Amino acid sequence: MRLCAVFSVEKLHLQFDVIKAATDNFLLGGTLADGQAIAVKRLASPSGQGIREFKSEACLAAKLQHKNLVKVHGFCLDGEEKLLVYEYKQGSPFEVGNSARQRIVMGIARGLQYLHEDSRFEMIHRDLKPSNILLDGEMNPKIADFGMAKLFEADQTQGNTMASGYMAPEYASTGNFSVKSDVFSFGVLLLEIVSGRRNSVTDLNIEDENLLDHAWKCWNDGTGLELVDPNLGGNFSIPEIERYIHIGLLCVQEDAARRPAIASILSMLSSQSAVLPSLTAPPAFPYKRNLPQALSASNAHFTEVFTNVNGR
């Protein structure tokens, strides 16, 4: 298999009983033989995923190496069981100070740039959300679940993985996606990190605006600083935070063609003098879903166990 030229199938294939015992039947923490704490993602049957395709996707994910991507240790096939094994990282990109948040934003953007432009294979994440942004001990972000979209495709279209607050409108309404779909999700994350609040769109009866509508209203009213997380206590540069809000709103524009590429986003985040494009409105929630039957019919399901191991 050409996809596994560097990482052989034998090296990546881990034994089911070893993983099961290490995680106490997928309930508690575990480590590999080298002491690395692991996270396990389990695809339950029936998944509709062929063994060869599963191996290829797992091998491809393992080949993608970047400091802002969670390392894929391997996979396991045992009867109907299909497991993916990752390195374990923990932490929230919201419970830190301003300088750490800046580092997190830049790290996420660099990880996406690697997936979209710098790796041998263009990779669209399709499920970028807070639970897929993990932090190491130095608050460096690592993107998880990249390259796994095909393995969990049915779950994503059914909303079990891709939370609606992070899903680009074109993906939610038609099932069509591109790198600009990831850019939309990044924009939501950026606005969440600035504001310290989630883009909740699950309760349609509440009077509060969702985060994107609120950010858009504040921006148009000239009160963008009202969006900033009060927990930062004013410890931020006003021009910088306003630039972050502007870039976040650029990313969540309804028209995918108007969203910048990730390389442009990195340039705008890094340069105080960059001239930022004008803005158009984000999409209205809730989306009207018109998914093709082929995308919504499968009953695949997965559970995930993030292990928490002391003494790393």
From TrEMBL:
GO terms for molecular function: ATP binding; protein serine/threonine kinase activity. Transmembrane segments: none annotated. The keyword Kinase applies. Gene3D superfamilies: Phosphorylase Kinase, domain 1 (3.30.200.20), Transferase(Phosphotransferase) domain 1 (1.10.510.10). Its main location: membrane. GO terms for cellular component: plasma membrane. It is a single-pass type I membrane protein. InterPro entries: Kinase-like_dom_sf, Prot_kinase_dom, Ser-Thr/Tyr_kinase_cat_dom, Ser/Thr_kinase_AS. One of its GO terms (biological process) is defense response to oomycetes. Keywords: ATP-binding, Cell membrane, Glycoprotein, Kinase, Membrane, Nucleotide-binding, Receptor, Serine/threonine-protein kinase, Signal, Transferase, Transmembrane, Transmembrane helix. Residues 1-276 form the Protein kinase domain. It is found in: Cell membrane. The keyword Metal-binding does not apply. In the C-terminal section; belongs to the protein kinase superfamily. Ser/Thr protein kinase family. This is Protein kinase domain-containing protein. The lineage of its organism: Eukaryota, Viridiplantae, Streptophyta, Embryophyta, Tracheophyta.
